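hiii so um. not sure if this is the right channel but i have a protein structure encoded as tokens and i wanna go backwards to a sequence. like what aa goes where. can anyone help
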């Protein structure tokens, strides 16, 4: 029969988008069970046009589940994903708990779909949204040119930090709207007060060069994720990767600038051809006509959008690009759903 699917973290920012995607994609599922913290149990959420009651996370919630999508904090996944796997479910996990585990594949269906089958722990990891917002385009270029180095800067939306991130930006925007703020040191900070939510600094009328927690030597955890995950997905364990992650006052849609260096000389024409035809990528690159992707235009869409394709002025083996994608869709819910759909083909 059709596989039973569980969605763990169904009420969260990403969980909400997972339910939308399940309602939009071909319906291949038997039962869809919605699981969340006991606090949310009993709530009803719409999926596939029907109201489904949320059940509390617990061992019995996984009875009869074939595939479980997890979108919960790292420590919740670390505990419950192995419980679900022990009960026979294939887990597709979107936390950071298992991504770098050598016995857990880290999968982007457009780049390394074959990796899903090698899952000794019964767990498949979904990459972080910042990695996912660029890796489909990078993977397509790597397949053609052979990637040798990556230099990345991110411009990350507040919904990457969940519902709390979005609420924080909206509240701060209300506090600074219509003002003359942003003209003297600290005026924005004083106006928004102590409430910086999940961010270390005000994010309205500002950019914040920080995402995640402090890792070794001044790097942020987010920067380390982009480096480690890109290496693992592309099977390039020694790839030099330099990353700076920055939060910007955008609700949804992560953007990144990339400097990508390849094995030999590249041409912009060939790069454009590859990007224009790669599955999951849309080339939107006509600066003369004022055309390039921006988060305000790509939010709610599935692809990785690429613009500003140029050859590096001082290195004929390198390209400069701007990429942009919906961090809740391809960056999280969509990639999770694509992995689950790949696994579901094994049940037919
Ligand atoms: C962020 N990538 O954007 C993180 C969330 N996983 O904050």
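sure thing!! here u go:
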């Amino acid at each position: 029969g059709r596989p039973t699917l569980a969605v763990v973290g169904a009420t969260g920012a990403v969980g909400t988008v997972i339910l939308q995607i399940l309602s939009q994609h071909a319906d291949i599922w038997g039962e869809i069970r919605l699981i969340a913290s006991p606090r949310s149990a009993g709530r009803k959420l719409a999926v596939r046009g029907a109201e489904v009651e949320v059940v509390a996370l617990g061992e019995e919630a996984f009875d009869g589940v074939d595939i479980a999508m997890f979108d919960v904090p790292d420590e919740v996944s670390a505990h419950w994903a192995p419980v679900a796997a022990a009960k026979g479910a294939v887990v597709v996990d979107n936390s950071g708990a298992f991504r770098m585990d050598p016995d857990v594949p880290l999968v982007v269906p457009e780049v390394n779909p074959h990796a899903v089958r090698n899952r000794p722990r019964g767990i498949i990891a979904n990459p972080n949204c910042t990695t996912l917002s660029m890796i489909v385009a990078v993977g397509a270029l790597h397949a053609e040119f052979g990637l040798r180095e990556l230099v990345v800067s991110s411009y990350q939306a507040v919904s990457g930090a969940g519902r709390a991130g979005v609420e924080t930006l909206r509240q701060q925007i209300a506090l600074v709207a219509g003002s003359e703020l942003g003209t003297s040191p600290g005026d924005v900070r004083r106006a928004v007060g102590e409430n910086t939510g999940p961010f270390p600094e005000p994010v309205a009328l500002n950019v914040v060069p920080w995402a995640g927690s402090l890792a070794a030597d001044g790097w942020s955890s987010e920067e380390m994720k982009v480096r480690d995950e890109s290496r693992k997905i592309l099977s390039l364990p020694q790839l030099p990767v330099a990353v700076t992650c920055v939060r910007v006052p955008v609700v949804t849609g992560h953007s990144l600038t990339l400097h990508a260096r390849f094995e030999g000389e590249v041409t912009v024409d060939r790069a454009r051809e590859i990007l224009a035809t790669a599955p999951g990528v849309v080339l939107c690159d006509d600066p003369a006509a004022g055309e390039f992707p921006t988060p305000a235009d790509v939010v709610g869409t599935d692809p990785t959008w690429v613009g500003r394709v140029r050859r590096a002025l001082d290195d004929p083996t390198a390209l400069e690009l701007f990429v942009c994608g919906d961090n809740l869709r391809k960056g999280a819910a969509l990639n999770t759903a694509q992995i689950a759909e790949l696994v579901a083909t094994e049940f037919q």
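oh and The longest helix spans residues 129-145.
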